[in-house]
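Morning run. Coffee first, then this:
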Amino acid sequence: MNDGRIITEQRLNLTENQTKRLYDFLENNARPENRYYSYEFFYDNCTTRIYEAVKAVAGDSIHFQEPQNSAKNSFRQFINPYVKSVSWVKFGINLLLGTPADRNPPESETLFLPDLLKEGFSHARIQQADTSLALVSEQRFYAPQKRSVISPARVSPTLSFWFLLITSLLAGFFYRTNHTFWFWFDRLLFGIIGLIGVLIIFLWFFSSYPSTKWNWNIVWSAPALSAFIFSFMGRKRLSENYKVFLVLYAAIFLLFLLSWSFIPQQIPSAILPLLFLLGFRSIKKQSESVNQEMVNVL
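And here it is:
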């Protein structure tokens, strides 16, 4: 309420014994040895734990009707509407979640969101003696006097990256001979993208979140770290090794774009201008390396 959010209260038709068992369940769960768990976005979070607690105390007396996933939404499609107004958060989440987030969950796995759990509770039945009752006996809404409103970001990731691409192309035309500027520009560009690749690698191989594994964004982001490292080498090494790497890197972007519709993961469309910019700078630096070789020969 203090945050300006609407609260929905559902009173459950539990017997006195079930209520006591639920209280004991929560007391035991709050003990220091039980209060911490390995959080997972879709399979084990604060919402799914409520469902498991009610099931633990109600047992077979509860007949739960899971929300229907008639639209065949994936986990990613379920969460996207909730972060629509915070475009940078939405971009970051979709960038770091891998192909497990694009799986279409069965009805039994759609209870990871509070709204979906509330809907499931609203349609559930519980058996009390010889009578079948609605699980929710009463539902109340508490609306704060001042509703919280999240203002959308003035500049979205898509707009920002297209602006960066266009600005870079214009700068490439007007400042094409300023080698110092482009030397540091490429270091910054490939360095930041390389760090994103490192984060994706870490979440894939070293985190306990299954939803961040098998992330296809590693294809275009991780190799940028090599480009960043190569940039610290001398011009001779740059001429010998960097040229081949940049050709391969540009080929990766081309294959990634051609395979866009076949990749089993919803890739954020906002990265398109970034891919074009990385490909452009890779080709540009490769041509500069070739020109430098020609100058040395002459």
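The longest strand covers residues 136-142. Good start to the day.
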